[in-house]
Each structure stands twice: as structure tokens, then as C-alpha cells.
Specification:
membrane, transmembrane, transmembrane helix
Length: 105
């Protein structure tokens, strides 16, 4: 009766683990990007309110803020893609080894 829980094939387990890892990575990237964008927008709004008369400063701040956002997004996406690929490959190998050991026994 208790063996009904272990009826999933190894390939499905690996796919579920990989999908879960990718979803977690995507959520983390989205949260980080949203936080960075909100902080940049708040800083730009404060600078615009404080320095209403100096238009050049506002333009410079906006350009710098956009550059910072682009750099952060590129770094986060590249690091998350590399970590997700490595973690998914390691999780698939570990789960396949556990499946082979359980099937042999």
C-alpha cells in the first residue's frame, strides 16, 4: 500500500526539480529587478523635486540611473542563468543516481 507514493518515473522527478529551480530563479530575478527599479524611480523623483530648476542634473541622474539598472539586470541574469544551469544539472545527476540505486535494490 505504501509504495503508491514512489510510482513516479525518474525522468518526471528530474523534470519537476529542474522546472522548480528555474521558476525560483526567475522569481528571484524579477523581485530584484523590481526592487532596483523602484529605488531608482524614488531617487529620480526626489532629485527632480529637490532640483527643479537645474534640468541638466536631472538628465544626468536619469542617464546614470538607467545605466545602473541595465548593469544590475545583466549581472543578475547572467549569474542566475549560470547558477540555475549548474544546480539543475547537479540535481538531475543526484536524482538519477538515487533512482538507479532504488531500482537496483
Amino acid at each position: 500500500m505504501g509504495k503508491h507514493e514512489n510510482t513516479f518515473p525518474c525522468s518526471e522527478v528530474v523534470e519537476v526539480v529542474v522546472v522548480a529551480v528555474v521558476v525560483v530563479e526567475v522569481v528571484v530575478v524579477v523581485v530584484v529587478v523590481v526592487i532596483v527599479v523602484v529605488v531608482v524611480v524614488v531617487v529620480v523623483v526626489v532629485v527632480v523635486v529637490v532640483v527643479v530648476e537645474v534640468r541638466i542634473v536631472v538628465v544626468v541622474v536619469v542617464v546614470v540611473a538607467v545605466a545602473v539598472v541595465v548593469v544590475v539586470v545583466v549581472v543578475v541574469v547572467s549569474s542566475s542563468s549560470s547558477s540555475s544551469s549548474s544546480s539543475s544539472s547537479s540535481s538531475s545527476s543526484s536524482s538519477s543516481s538515487s533512482c538507479s540505486s532504488s531500482s537496483s535494490s
